[in-house]
Specification:
alpha/beta, Rossmann fold, Alpha-Beta Plaits, 7-stranded parallel beta sheet, 5-stranded parallel beta sheet
């Protein structure tokens, strides 16, 4: 089937190549079936009524109005883990930048003047200011043990570090990925007391805003290196600045520039480079393109942030995909409507996630427009799609 995909940012060609050949992609089109986006802010964007899903080529979805999309039955996808290796490598670089005082040392060298002999004398007399510490034998505390956190833990162990972690919402799958050497912390407060490095890998939510504040920083060892390659807002900038001035924090390395912190010599900020590798951009584009195609063609959902994961093998040519509110007797009403129309259900799957639910139904004969309209009229049904193969 011909589908139209609106791209709001430059999306890797290798990713777009995973879409069916019949699909059309463009950065300006009318009535798209889906939207592919990386960083563009969609909160003020008028979403065309034709849109069935939105794919974020990355992990964070702060740029997408999730609640509004849920109310319209629009599935929002992201790509957890696709950029995990890129972020992991940058965090390791950040640890080295912080503990080995690389940026202050670079600034020192760039300010030297004189001939070669003079430079050598200045280097020898000045380098003592930049003596740092090795990663080997130190303790890394990781808050958030998802795809990035688990990869970081494995790499840190290979570098000879001790690793402690905290994640109250860790999934079974993520727990299986963790190296056995990772030690569990009972709380964030317990973790920050024990760590030489603290690395944050959690989404920005009301519960995680200012997660690292003045009170928590006071619990940390003197000379700790704090790393935030997760989201701006998780660390309170004013508290971080005070702690840098006091020497409680030896360095704060993050992926989000801050005017408040920029002048401090031990604040290292990067322009949101965590996932900025060709490999990560390709991985994200490939994953999200495959997810969108599977949803548009089969109604299957993988890695949605607002609807449950759901998949059902095709055993019939005639399929219904129904986005609905998670309310009692929804399955009963759907089944009754199909039975009253003389349609035999071949297979049926329903999954829920919070207030949202999704239902896939395969029937044995063709479905009329009238039946689709009857299903759409059920209170709580957000969207009904007919997906004949």
């Amino acid at each position: 089937m011909n589908r139209k995909i609106l791209t709001l940012n430059a999306i890797s060609k290798k990713g777009l190549a995973r879409l069916p050949e019949s699909y059309t992609t463009a950065n300006d089109m009318e009535a798209p079936d889906a939207i592919l986006v990386r960083s563009q802010n969609m909160h003020e964007m008028a979403i065309p009524p034709s849109v069935l899903c939105i794919g974020r080529a990355g992990a964070g979805t702060n740029n997408i109005p999730i609640k509004a999309m849920s109310e319209k039955g629009i599935v929002v996808f992201n790509t957890p883990g696709a950029n995990a290796n890129a972020v992991k490598e940058l965090v390791i670089a950040g640890m080295l930048m912080g503990t080995r005082n690389l940026f202050p040392a670079l600034r020192f060298v760039s300010g030297l003047v004189g001939d070669d002999e003079s430079l050598q004398k200045q280097v020898e007399s000045g380098k003592k200011r930049f003596v740092g510490h090795e990663l080997w034998g130190s303790t890394l505390g990781i808050i958030g043990l998802g795809a990035i956190g688990s990869k970081l833990a494995e790499a840190a162990i290979q570098l000879g570090m001790n690793v402690i972690g905290y994640d109250p919402d860790i999934t079974v799958e993520a727990a299986w990925r963790l190296p056995s050497q990772v030690r569990r912390s009972a709380s964030i407060d317990d973790l920050v007391k024990r760590a030489d490095f603290v690395s944050l890998h959690v989404p920005l939510l009301p519960a995680t805003r200012d997660l690292i504040n003045a009170e928590r920083i006071k619990l940390m060892k003197k000379g700790v290196v704090l790393l935030n390659f997760s989201r701006e807002g998780i660390v309170n900038d004013a508290a971080a600045l005070d702690s840098l001035n006091e020497g409680r924090l030896h360095a704060y390395v993050c992926d989000f520039p801050s005017n408040l912190l920029r002048p401090h010599p031990n604040f290292v900020s990067l322009p949101h480079l965590g996932a900025s590798t060709e490999e990560a951009e390709e991985n994200c584009a490939i994953m999200v393109s495959e997810q969108i195609a599977d949803y548009l063609e089969n109604g299957n959902i993988q890695n949605s942030v607002n609807f449950p994961n759901i998949a059902m093998p095709r055993e019939s040519r005639y399929r219904l995909a129904i986005a609905n509110a998670n309310v009692p007797n929804m399955l009963g009403q759907i089944s009754t409507a199909l039975a009253d129309a003389g349609l035999n259900i071949h297979n049926m799957v329903n999954k829920s996630r919070g207030d949202m639910a999704f239902t896939l139904v395969d029937v044995e004969t063709e479905i009329s427009v009238k039946i689709i309209e009857q299903l759409a009229a059920i209170d709580g049904v957000l969207r009904v799609r007919y997906l004949p193969s």
